[in-house]
Design a protein that fits this description.
This protein has 419 residues and is an alpha/beta fold. The protein has two domains: 218 residues, 3-Deoxy-D-manno-octulosonic-acid transferase, N-terminal domain (Rossmann fold, 3-Layer(aba) Sandwich), CATH 3.40.50.11720; 186 residues, Glycogen Phosphorylase B (Rossmann fold, 3-Layer(aba) Sandwich). It contains 18 helices and 14 strands. A seven-stranded parallel sheet has the order 3-2-1-4-5-6-7, with helices on both faces. Strands 10-11-9-8-12-13-14 form a seven-stranded parallel sheet. The radius of gyration is 22 Å and the shape is globular.
């Protein structure tokens, strides 16, 4: 009954969908393309006898994390082809770039008939949902069609578990129908099991296995040349409200005069809003999209580009991880540590609590209480090259120690798909 109510609520929202897609498409044109796919209508497939292994990666981060897993799966399942689905325009763009030989599409909205059309069109041998993408109707339709479906690299914070508990019967139905769950940590596994997931295995975090994107090192070298010989503080994946906090703090507690601050908002639709925030405070800045050298008198670069975070990390001396000064649970620090970059992160990190705790314990990261303590700590570290070097080497060792999750996960998923 609860799933029927859930379906009815989605149906009530459907008339607003075209307006929402059009609105988001103002800044991200990808939202105005392939609209039929969001309702389960797809173009004909070219002749190919190979069955699909299907991976759903909702957005950019999950798509990049799917890379090592997809490669490991195809090694174990020769004779299969890859289907990658997304919900966001940035995710789809990344899928097309990172998986040139795969079929890439939008997953439909979670309605029974649209999911039936999707599954009937592609007929995947097995489905894999990345991290937190649990859709009740999708899972029910996979079960009806006898398609095994797994949740891979699963993470579930205590906050998210409490939200699921409010609709316990719906959550138990969905999680209980999963053929396999591979969790990042034991705490994730325990919370997933409480919600009804069976066959939960702890395999670690696949994001430790993400490869350096092609061309990232060369682009990082270009960034460094444009920045000049200055200490670089990167504000990575910042979220709404954080940039204002940090800019206001910088007005009162300045960094050393030579430091260049590079701010890269998490979502591309906010690039212009952040540009306006910087301008409103009378600060000179250069956009990354301008592709010009940064004059010595300019103290801020706005990273208004997509898919270049690895290069930003490789070009900086110290990285602050966004989403952590506001109560949003933080963004992933693994990519920064893998680049050998010292990390600062704020108090809100429930999305990656285990990774943060392990990085801090390894000496690769330091946690700060607020924007003021972040700026103060950044100022100290940027004037202490020896400490920066120790933290960077600790980050590299920390990520090396935790690699291998993709292969462990692929072994379990391949077995599940072959049954």
């Amino acid at each position: 009954m609860l799933r029927r109510l859930y379906t009815a609520l989605i149906m009530l929202a459907l008339p607003l969908v075209p307006l929402r897609l059009w609105w988001r498409g103002r800044r991200e044109p990808g939202y105005r393309a392939h609209i039929g796919e969001r309702f389960g209508f797809y173009p004909p497939l070219p002749p190919d006898p190979r069955p699909f292994i299907w991976i759903h990666a909702v957005s950019l981060g999950e798509t990049r994390a799917a890379q090592p897993l997809a490669a490991a799966l195809l090694r174990r399942l020769p004779g299969h082809q890859l289907l990658i689905t997304h919900m966001t325009a940035t995710g789809r763009a990344a899928g097309e770039a990172l998986f040139p030989e795969a079929t890439v599409a939008f997953l439909p909205y979670d309605l029974p008939w649209s999911m039936r059309r999707f599954l009937g069109h592609y007929r995947p041998r097995a489905g894999i949902l990345m991290e937190t993408e649990v859709w009740p109707n999708l899972i029910a339709e996979c079960q009806r069609a006898h398609i095994p479906i797994a949740l891979a690299n699963a993470r579930l914070s205590a906050r998210s578990a409490r939200r699921y508990a409010r609709v316990a019967s719906l959550a138990r139905e969905a999680f209980g129908a999963l053929s396999l769950v591979t969790a990042q940590t034991a705490a994730d596994a325990e919370r997933l099991a409480v919600l009804g997931a069976g066959a939960v295995q702890v395999t670690g975090n696949i994001k430790f296995d993400m490869p350096m994107p092609a061309g990232a090192a060369a682009l990082a070298s270009t960034f460094r040349q444009r920045y000049g010989r200055r200490p670089i503080l990167l504000l990575a994946s910042t979220r709404e409200g954080e940039e204002a906090l940090i800019l206001d703090t910088l007005d009162r507690h300045r960094l050393p005069a030579s430091v260049l601050v590079v701010v890269v908002p998490r979502h591309p639709q906010r690039f212009e809003a952040v540009a306006q925030l910087i301008s409103a405070r009378g600060r000179a800045f250069v956009r990354r999209s301008a592709n010009v050298d940064v004059p010595p008198e300019v103290g801020i670069v706005l990273g208004d580009s997509l898919g270049e975070m690895a290069s930003y990390y490789s070009a900086c001396d110290l990285a602050f991880i966004g989403g952590s000064l506001v109560p949003l649970g933080g963004q992933n620090l693994i990519e920064a540590c893998a680049a050998g970059v010292p990390v600062l992160i704020g108090p809100s990190c429930f999305n990656f609590s285990q990774a943060v705790a392990d990085a801090v314990a390894a000496g690769a990261a330091q946690q700060v209480d607020d924007a003021r303590s972040m700026i103060a700590r950044a100022a100290d570290l940027l004037e202490d090259p020896a400490q920066l070097d120790r933290m960077g080497r600790a980050g590299s060792a920390f990520t090396a120690l935790h690699r291998g999750a993709a292969e462990r996960t692929a072994a379990l998923l391949a077995d599940c798909a072959s049954r």
